[in-house]
Structure formats: C-alpha cells, structure tokens
Amino acid sequence: MRTRLRFHWSLSQAGDPSRRARSLDQQSGVPPLAYQIELCRTAEHCGIDSMLMAIGYTRPDPLVLSIALGARTSRIRFMIACRSGLITPTYFVQQINTASTLLPGRICINMVCGHTPHELGYYGDFLEHDERYVRTAEFLAICRDLWTRPEPVTVDGRYYRIEDACVRTPMLAERGDRPEIFVGGNSPQAEDLAAEYGDCLWRFPDSDVVLAPRVRRVVDRGAEVGLLVSLICRPTRTEAADAAGALVGRFGAETRDVHRQFAANSDSTGFRAVYAAAASPSTAWLSRTLWTGAVPFLGAPAIALVGSYAEIAEAILGYREMGVTQFLFVGWPDVSEMQHFADGVKPLLGEAAGQAGSPAPAGIGPAGSLTR
Amino acid sequence: MTGTGAKFHWRLLQGGEGQGATRAAQNSARAAALPDLPAQIAFCAAAEQSGIDSVLVDLNFAKPDPVALTTALAVRTASLKFIVAARSGLLSPTLLTQQINTVSTLAPGRVSLNIVAGHSPAEQRTYGDFLPHDERYRRTDEFLAICHGLWERSGGVTFSGQYFRTEDAKLNTPFLGDARMPEIFIAGNSDESRRLAERWGTCWMRLADTPASTAAAVAPVLANGVAAGLRLSIIAAPSDEEARRNAASLVAGVARDDGGRERAFVGASDSVSIRQTFDLAESEWLTSCLWTGAVRSHGAPSIALVGGPETVAAGIHEFIRAGVSHFIFSGWPKLDSMLFFGRHILPRVRELEQAVTC
Measured between CA atoms, how close is A59 to chain B, in angstroms? Predict the structure, then answer.
C-alpha cells in the first residue's frame, strides 16, 4: 500500500504575515498566542497533521511554546525544531519526553542544522556546515539509543560523551518508543542524515528535473521526503496569481535588502539554491505552479505553489508520483490559506490524502464546482 | 502582606509521591518520572490559596524536565510563581535564557531560577557533565555571565571563557517580569556557591542549620545585598507532642539509614551541603524544634522544624531574625503539610514579623 499523503503547517508567522519582511532584529519574540491558538484549531479542523515549531534567536523557544499551545488544543501535533549544538542529547531527550507525557502522541521533532553561522554563534555553536551534520548524526544516534534501548547508554564520541545515561521520563509517541524524526535540509549531508537516522527529509522544492533524482535517492534508502513550500491556492489560477501579486506588491526595496543580507550570511544549501533561483527572471517559475517571485521579499520558505485548486492538486499528485509523501506549508496569511487548501485542494486528492482530518465544513459544494 | 516579610515557597508535588517516601524509593518509582497534572494543578491552586509565593520544580534524571513541566502548570494557574531548577552543564546559556524568557511571556512575572550545581557525579555524567565540584561552579559563573548579558538587553553578548563562547548573542524574546531578569536562587552550602550567589544571585539558598550557624554563614551575602534562603521541611501538628509523634512515625518504617542507600548516595555525592547536613544528623535535635532524624533516610532537605504552630512559627522567625528571607519548604504529605502551614503557621509568622517591625 502506498504511503498516504500527510500535510503539516508552519506556525512561524501566525498573526503576522509580514514577519519575514522585517529585519531579523525587528521580528517580535513574544508569541501572539491568540492567533497561534486560532491557527492550531483551524489546522485541527482542516486535517493538518502537525504544526512546525521553528527555532532561532528571533523566536520563542519551540518546546515551551508547543506545551503552551498543546494545553489549548486537543489533537494537533507539534513538530519541534531542534539543533544539536544547543543542548546535551540526554537533556534534550528528557525535555522532549516530558513534552510527550504532557501531550501524548502529539510530539515529533524536526532536526535542523542551522542556516546562518553568525546566528549559531549566539548559541555558542561555531562548527561549519558539513561538520554540523556529523555532530547531528552523533546526537541523533545517542537520542535513538536513549529512546529505544532498555539498558543505560554509554558513548564516548567525537562531540558527546555520556556515561550510563538513562532518562526515566518515557517518550509517549504515537507509535513505537521514539518520536517521528524529521530532518531539514537540501544538501547531500541532510539526505544522508535523514536516511540514516530520520523518518522524513524536509527540503525545498525545485524544478522537477532537479528534484526527482534527489527524492529518489532518499526514498530508495527508506526515508520519506517532504516539501517545505508556501501555498497560494484559489478557485482559479487568475485569483491565485492576483493573490501572489498582492502579496509581493506591498513590499519595497527595503525588504529585498533584508533577504540579500540573509542570503549573504547563510551557509545553507537549500536557502542558497532558492535565493539563486529567485534571482534570475528565467527561473521565476520553476514549473507551471512553482513560483519564486516572493522569495526576494519573504525569504526562501516563500518559494510557493501558486495556482487553482485543481492545478495545486495536480501538482501535489505529481510530486507524489515522484516519491514525495509529506508537505509542510506556509500561508500568507495562514488561516485563510489553510481553509482554501482544506476546502478546495484536499477533496481533489482523493484516496491519496486518506481519511485524515475532518470532512469539509457544510456549505462548500462539490470540489469540481469550485474550479474552472 | 505582599512585598514585605519573608517569602515562603514549597517544593512541587511530584508524580506518584507517597506519604513520606524515602529518596531512594521515590526515584525508583516509575510514577515519579511522569507529570501528574491533575494532582499538581490542585497542589498549585492550594499553594496560591495558602500564601505560598512559588513552587520549586526540581531537576534530575528521574523526574520530568522542570522547564517543560513548569510551562504546563503555569498556563493552568493564575498567580503562583515557579522556581525552575537549572544546571550549567546541560544546555547553552543562550538556550536556557530563551526557554526561561519564553515561559515568562506565557506567565509574566511568574518564573524564577534555581541554579544548582548538581550533587551526584555519576548522575552528572549521564548528562555528559564530567567536571568536579569546584569547576562546575566556575562553569556556572560563565554560564550566568552570558545569561545576565542577554537579560541586560544592551547589545549582542560576546563572551569567550573557558567553558562557553558566544558571539554577538541576542534573543528577541524578552524576559517579562517585575525586573529585567528573573530572580536567581543559587543553591549550595559551599564557599563557591556563596561567591556565585554574591556575583549573580538574588538569593543564596542553603540547607538549614541552627539559627546561630545560619546567621554566621549568611552574614557575608547579606552584606553584599544578596538575600539568604533556606531549604528545610516542616512537620507540624496542632500540638508539639503530636508533631513529634508524626516525625517519629515518618521514620518508624525505615531503618535510620534506609539500609545504607542514602549513606551510599551521600558517599558518592560531592555536594558540600548534602555532606554537611548528613554530618549534622549525628545529633538528632539541633535545637528544641530542629530535627535531623529523617536526614539519613529521606535526604538532606528533610531536616525539619517539628512542632505545633507556635513552635514552628517561632522556629521560622528565629531564622528570619538570623537574616533569612526566603524559605523553600517541604513536608509529608506535601499538600497537607502546605495547607496546615498556610492556615496555622504562616499567620503566626506574619504576626511575629509585624511585632518586630512595629
């Protein structure tokens, strides 16, 4: 049986769709709880699997925020981002396990290796890109041992040394004895990490010809591949294009500078590739639905699927043919985009999207009537 | 009453906590590793009603993580504060600050820190911390220097020490509270912990000793403008006799040294306070109401004031006159002992405080 498609959503700009247009130091670190709770509850109604809880110096801590939002929601899961340079594996497992006992079956992790050396230095992490992946592999190996082995764990590694470690607080996972592990990144190192220690690789989309072999490489090694992509879907292509135009229309040269700066400082393979595609007019559209036009204003995660409900559904099923089984969406703004997706696109995916989520709210006609 | 007088805190009820379980028994209980939210929320609500300022949320390998547990409890309670235990060997100071600040945005003014150095080398090694006692304090000094820099919010924090290095560190999530940074309780009886408290702390937290010894020990920190606090237990009842009977029955079921398990724990510990308290327990009564009878079976924090409300209130007031302004109490069972304290002892302590100030 083929893997059912699963959909996740980023919490990153809930309540502030212009967040990524501001300079990093100007982005608020105080969580807009009311909006975030609304987005999480909408996600529960829309059959979204989990919320991505990003990590970085501009944001609240994702573990703490997940527990707070979990208290105000009933079933949405939280995909908690973590970096190996910030915390010892034993204490990380203790924190994540505790979160799982507070929100049983609702915690998974997104292992990321950072994207900006300058920012990693805030946390005392001074390793270069490739070595961060080596350290993260060691980190995940220890975490997996702590989750799955009954006996105390002793490791004398290159980056970590622990003796007779055991974490008494158990991981209450949806299935098995460890959380689902997502790994973020576009580089070969990220692919290796996902294949060896993870369940699913998150990467940015690219043109089909570039993307297909990269997806195959990971899927053949037993991990899933998911796409981190923004979504602008409307009943018609014209409406979607208008929404995309309106999104970028309100930003000026200043926001371009924010992201020029960001791109210059980043050592992330994925971020660089998306910024590069966005820099050339010939690659503004990487496919009929994949658009990089918002990237100069809103950053690499603004690489977007733009189109009618039918076109987006077709694109998703196309990616599925390629081997992609999960999607992590970003919306501008989130709540209405999520509803467009749930009402317009999801019903067109048929059995591929399985039974996850609630049925479409009353009042929405057959999906076909919403598309031209 | 708020803002004046001593502050009273209680150790948080932990999962599966029985009536008077010994430390060894507690740690082996699977339930101790799990939050018990309904019981803990009820405990916190009772603390709010009992005039308790904060609950202490402990950290060790056998319990849920205190940052995560505090978050869950803080969003379900109204006014209680949480003293979150933290150690410098577990995470980057930037991340700890980010986590504490995030909790503060969810519960403004309701989070403070208890910096502990750890007491069991074997347990520290499970976290990857292999430093000996004195060096852990040096590392914690660097850790708190970075945390302080982040809380000051006066530009990026660049620090290059022996244990930590940051470059231009900053965080967009601020600490929300009465001050720019949380209250910091520094635990320990050693000179290293005292110096750390004088440098970075708002309060130096010791394990109880006689009021006279306590007064002598805390004088230097008070002179430096830092508060002094004590950890101890309360075994109280309507009468002195009943309280003493309760104390006796607490340890009646266990050998005085718990089959040697607590002795082995202390022997393997490099904590000055735990060793000092264990040694103090050579004499069962340090004063007419300060009892060490449970120390060798229930652990150092079980050094207790034992008596009726008048006796215990007077015992507390003696410590207040010795310069102590924060107390972190515990009792058996924790909830009942806290309720008894709030109802019968705290009002008497306030009267005694008033009598002195008027």
Answer: 6
